[in-house]
From TrEMBL:
Keywords: Oxidoreductase. Pfam families: adh_short_C2. GO terms for biological process: monocarboxylic acid metabolic process. It comes from Bacteroides muris (ex Afrizal et al. 2022). The keyword Transferase does not apply. PANTHER family: 3-OXOACYL-(ACYL-CARRIER-PROTEIN) REDUCTASE (PTHR42879), 3-OXOACYL-[ACYL-CARRIER-PROTEIN] REDUCTASE FABG (PTHR42879:SF2). Its EC number is 1.1.1.47. This is Glucose 1-dehydrogenase. Belongs to the short-chain dehydrogenases/reductases (SDR) family. One of its GO terms (molecular function) is glucose 1-dehydrogenase [NAD(P)+] activity.
Length: 247
């Protein structure tokens, strides 16, 4: 086991699958005590059984009171919170002419408003213990734009702006705020979207300088570093983990 995050108390939202699950597992590997969050009851039972340092929290990030109760539970059980990774997200890929208001509003509630409210809450708890690290998950789409993802890109653009401003505001209390902007990551969801179109996948890969899709572990490694004391002089940064696609 690595000691990069030795005994740090880390909260990861959207931890039941995909990138969030990889982040949680990486942080456990690096010595952290991890609280994984998901809205589907029982979705992380296997992780709790397998890893002594993993604890499940079941709540909807858009429900402010439930989120507050969950964060206070962590504080009560562990005495402090060192790291928050805002990974939970919703995406609806629609051309501009097909955008549905209800879907856009849901994306903003999950991808932006819930993040702001969690940062507001957790940063206060971190301040009582000398600081901490917050990592928000943005997207390369917010940097480059993406046809068919205008509304989703807008939510991730908001995260980038929020990250930079929050970093400046929270620096005096010792709380660092950064964001990781993944490129195309080979998750279960990606496989579902493109399973019948190898040509589309090949076209996407052709635009990536390193010549491959990202993996959830690529994102997890970046998050673990930004959560650690090795990045103690890094705040307000947007780290592109995209295979050199955004340059």
């Amino acid at each position: 086991m690595s000691e990069l995050l030795k005994d740090k108390v880390c909260i990861v939202t959207g931890a039941a699958q995909g990138i969030g699950k990889s982040i949680a597992l990486k942080m456990i590997e690096d010595g952290a005590i991890v609280y994984g969050c998901d809205r589907l009851e029982g979705s992380m039972s296997a992780l709790e059984l397998e890893f002594e340092r993993f604890h499940a929290l079941y709540f909807d990030v858009t429900h402010a009171q439930a989120a507050k109760e969950s964060m206070m539970r962590v504080k009560k059980e562990q005495g402090h919170i060192d790291v928050l990774v805002n990974n939970a997200g919703v995406v609806f890929n629609k051309k501009i002419g097909m955008i549905v208001r209800e879907e856009t509003e849901l994306m903003f509630r999950v991808n932006v408003i819930a993040v702001i409210e969690l940062v507001q809450l957790v940063s206060r708890l971190m301040a009582r213990n000398g600081g901490g690290s917050i990592v928000n998950i943005a997207s390369v789409t917010a940097v480059l734009g993406s046809s068919g993802q205008s509304a989703y890109s807008a939510t991730k653009g908001a995260i980038i702006s929020f990250t930079k401003s929050a970093a400046k505001e929270l620096a005096p209390i010792g709380v660092r705020v950064n964001a990781v902007a993944p490129g195309i990551v080979k998750t279960e969801r990606f496989a579902e979207l493109y399973e019948d179109s190898k040509e589309k996948i090949d076209m996407r890969i052709a635009k990536i300088a390193l010549g491959r899709l990202g993996s959830p572990d690529d994102i997890a490694n970046a998050c673990s570093f930004l959560a650690s004391d090795r990045s103690s002089y890094i705040s307000g940064q947007i780290l592109g983990v995209d295979g050199c696609a955004s340059i």
